[in-house]
């Protein structure tokens, strides 16, 4: 666990971080009715969309996925229940559900290799809705992400805090094992009933697991599950049960996969971060063309642009950069909602000016659950109107003094930029091509724009198990 995660575990009672254990609701006095669940789904829908980059602006893809969802829903025991499918413009590989809503990211679409695989994911999410798992989870939650915490504390709005907590829980809290099996069963039967190969669902989970392990290997870290696997664990027991369930449906391996039609639909879809809408990292600098801002981090820190925040990680420190709306002064934000929510007393509050804007900072001390002492320094900048930007630095107490100059220099680097001068990197897209007689996995992989591990990425992206050959005439995905 990182220093920052340890701090938040201490500040929030270790009940709200990613990776919580399962806790199946029994309904009870805190349960919600179907009508309440649907109302909550409608209330939270725009916030989920906003948190994951908005809706994908691709009418063809949207219509295709919506039609597939309707096909599965029509085959369910609940065909009259209204379900809206939303494709999110996010590179994160994820799928989730709220009462009345199923969400799929474009990142998930790019990794998939057949209509049957996508149907398996959607069918599983429909299973959670039909079994009322999503409504039960909404009634259980606390805050589940750092981004959700900061969204609430910087707006000083109890409703926002409650909403953020529900959103984080729906997205990140693991379903119970029983709920996973129930959703698997519904999904597998929907696939069989609509003519798809039920084994495709397990194949997608396998591709996602391979992709996650490859990314961890490239980053030099131990493998950690991506968001989808965090809330939908791919256990051997689940795979065995799904395989057994598939056999009971009577559908065999000759059932429909629809690989070519699927690949034709996702051809030209954006892959990875959209550098204009979501910003990009170049060396030790972060640029956001749409927000027209940039900043740098100290040498030796690794920058990562995540869906929740921009994070910089060093040996003895971590920084998180987020934006939020508040009409309060920078000092009031620190001494009020930030101090109250993190349960840290900030002292030495001082004002500063940055790029013609007012700002404030302070320092507090906290102890993590394992006894580690850390210093916490928020830097809040009133950027434009009610828009604020927050740098939250967490450092090992014995390293703070040595890092202080570099930290303040990093904060001072926040600046306006002209997008026309940024040399914005090209947007990568999925290019579906036909394999020719002279093509090999290696020759096709060399066409990709991946910076490294070209062959390995190409083979996982196309679900090639052996990576020794490709079939002439078959369609494959190249990222370029």
Notes on the protein architecture:
There is one protein chain. The protein is an alpha+beta fold. It has three domains: 3-266, no CATH class; 280-421, 3-Layer(aba) Sandwich (Protein Transport Mog1p, Chain A), CATH 3.40.1000.10; 430-479, Membrane-bound Lytic Murein Transglycosylase D, Chain A, CATH 3.10.350. It is built from 17 helices and 16 strands. It is globular and about 70 Å long.
Give the helix/strand layout.
Elements: H1 3-11, H2 34-51, H3 59-74, E1 84-88, E2 95-98, E3 101-105, H4 106-111, H5 115-130, H6 133-138, H7 146-155, H8 158-172, H9 177-193, H10 200-219, H11 227-231, H12 236-249, H13 259-266, E4 280-282, E5 285-288, E6 293-296, E7 302-305, E8 310-313, E9 317-325, H14 330-342, E10 347-354, E11 357-367, E12 373-384, E13 387-396, H15 400-412, E14 415-416, E15 430-434, H16 441-445, H17 454-461, E16 475-479
Parallel strand pairs: 1-3
Antiparallel strand pairs: 2-3, 4-5, 5-6, 6-14, 7-8, 8-9, 9-13, 10-11, 11-12, 12-13, 15-16
Helix pairs in contact: 3-5, 5-9, 5-10, 7-8, 7-14, 9-12, 10-17
């Amino acid at each position: 666990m990182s220093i920052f995660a340890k701090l938040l575990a201490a500040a929030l009672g270790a009940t709200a971080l990613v990776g919580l254990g399962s806790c199946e609701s029994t309904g009870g006095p805190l349960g919600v009715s179907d009508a309440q669940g649907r109302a909550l789904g409608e209330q939270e829908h725009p916030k989920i969309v906003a948190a994951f980059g908005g809706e994908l602006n691709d009418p063809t893809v949207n219509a295709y996925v919506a039609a597939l969802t309707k096909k599965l829903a029509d085959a369910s025991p609940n065909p009259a229940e209204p379900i809206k499918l939303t494709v999110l413009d996010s590179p994160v590989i994820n799928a989730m559900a709220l009462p009345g809503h199923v969400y799929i990211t474009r990142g998930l679409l790019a990794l998939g290799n057949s209509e049957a695989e996508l149907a398996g994911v959607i069918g599983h999410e429909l299973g959670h809705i039909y079994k009322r798992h999503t409504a039960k989870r909404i009634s259980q939650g606390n805050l589940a992400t750092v981004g959700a915490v900061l969204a609430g504390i910087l707006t000083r709005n109890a409703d926002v805090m409650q909403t953020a907590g529900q959103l984080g829980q729906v997205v990140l809290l693991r379903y119970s094992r029983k709920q996973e099996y129930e959703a698997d069963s519904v999904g597998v039967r929907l696939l069989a009933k609509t003519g798809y190969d039920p084994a495709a669902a397990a194949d997608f989970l396998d591709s996602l697991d391979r992709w996650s392990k490859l990314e961890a290997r490239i980053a030099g870290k131990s493998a950690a599950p991506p968001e989808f696997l965090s809330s939908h664990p791919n256990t051997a027991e689940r795979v065995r049960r799904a395989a057994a369930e598939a056999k009971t449906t009577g559908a065999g391996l000759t059932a429909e996969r629809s690989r070519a039609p699927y690949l034709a639909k996702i051809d030209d879809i954006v892959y990875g971060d959209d550098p204009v809408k979501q910003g990009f990292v170049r060396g030790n600098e972060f640029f956001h063309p749409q927000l027209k801002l940039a900043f740098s981090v100290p040498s030796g820190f690794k920058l990562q642009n995540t869906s929740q925040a921009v994070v910089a990680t060093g040996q003895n420190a971590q920084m998180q950069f987020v934006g939020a709306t508040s009409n309060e002064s920078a000092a009031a934000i620190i001494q009020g909602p930030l101090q109250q929510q993190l349960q840290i007393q900030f002292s030495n509050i001082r004002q500063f000016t940055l790029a013609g804007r007012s700002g404030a900072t302070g320092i507090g001390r906290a102890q993590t659950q394992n006894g580690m002492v850390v210093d916490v320094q928020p830097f809040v900048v009133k950027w434009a109107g009610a828009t604020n930007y927050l740098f939250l630095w967490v450092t090992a107490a014995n390293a703070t003094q040595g890092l202080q100059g570099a930290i303040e220099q990093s904060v001072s680097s926040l600046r306006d930029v002209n997008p026309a001068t940024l040399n914005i990197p090209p947007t990568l897209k999925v290019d579906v091509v036909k394999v020719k007689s002279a093509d090999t996995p290696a020759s096709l992989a060399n066409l990709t724009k991946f910076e490294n591990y070209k062959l390995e990425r190409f083979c996982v992206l196309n679900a090639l198990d052996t990576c020794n050959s490709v079939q002439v005439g078959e369609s494959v995905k190249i990222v370029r």
